[in-house]
Specification:
The protein has about 230 residues and is an alpha/beta fold. It has 2 domains: about 160 residues, 3-Layer(aba) Sandwich (Rossmann fold), CATH 3.40.50.2300; about 55 residues, Winged helix-like DNA-binding domain superfamily/Winged helix DNA-binding domain (Arc Repressor Mutant, subunit A, Orthogonal Bundle). About 50% of the residues lie in helices and about 15% in strands. It has a 5-stranded parallel sheet, with helices on both faces. A two-stranded antiparallel sheet has the order 4-5. It is elongated and about 60 Å long.
Length: about 230
């Protein structure tokens, strides 16, 4: 019987490259984490999955677990920013690569992920098991992965990357932004939140400066495009 030694050697190399990997999913949505876990555990011999729903939990696991890759949602609910996890990884010079997950296709949202140092970006609404596995394997090889839609957004807006403001919303800003989205006036918001009218106006102006918008309607539209209003 003829043995194809080259095929056997290639198979061994493939098996070695696809050794079981430790993966951390950072997302505040439990149902989405379960979906991703289910996708990954279709290949149970390849992936061991950990989960975090907050910045503090993610940082704990990053510090205590030998992770191979982190799947990171940029928006962790109303109170936390997933990009803080990316900041921690970068500042601490931790070598684990990041794969960004996002629902939002706004250019600012995509560029913020790129600027945060992710090695790839996947759109939640369109990513299936095969693409997820493919993206992970590409990133683990030290390469980058951006689907065509994401790559085109990056290419069209890359010149804005250096000037991109880092948007971090305070709890108050998040609350007021939601009130503005509902069409409430400064007086309405003041009554609902016990924040003075002048403070509401000051916060609104600060939000417009952060987002480079010039009216409340522009601000709300920007917030939707870039995931500030999930």
């Amino acid at each position: 019987m003829y043995l194809d030694t080259n095929s056997i050697q290639n198979q061994r190399m493939d098996d070695a490259m696809r050794q079981r990997r430790n993966i951390l999913i950072v997302d505040d949505n439990r149902y989405f984490r379960e979906i991703v876990r289910t996708m990954l555990e279709r290949e149970a011999s390849l992936y061991k999955v950990f989960e975090a729903d907050s910045v503090s939990q993610a940082i704990y696991l990053i510090d205590t677990t030998p992770l191979d890759i982190v799947l990171l949602d940029a928006r962790l609910g109303d109170k936390e920013d997933g990009l803080d996890v990316a900041d921690y990884v970068r500042k601490k010079k931790i070598g684990v690569p990041l794969l960004g997950l996002t629902t939002y296709e706004g250019s600012a949202n995509i560029l913020h992920l790129v600027k945060a140092g992710v090695r790839g970006i996947l759109l939640k609404a369109t990513t299936g098991p095969q693409e997820l596995d493919n993206a992970i394997q590409i990133i683990l090889r030290g390469e980058k992965y951006y689907p065509p839609r994401v790559q085109s957004i990056i290419d069209e807006n890359f010149h804005k990357l250096d000037e991109l403001p880092t948007i971090r919303l305070t709890d108050r800003e998040r609350i007021l932004l939601r009130q503005m989205e509902k069409g409430f006036t400064a007086k309405d918001i003041s009554r609902h939140t016990n924040i003075t009218v002048s403070s509401v106006e000051t916060t609104r102006k600060r939000l417009q400066e952060k987002t480079d918008t010039h009216s409340t309607s522009e601000l709300v539209a920007y917030a939707y495009r870039n995931g500030l209003l999930p």
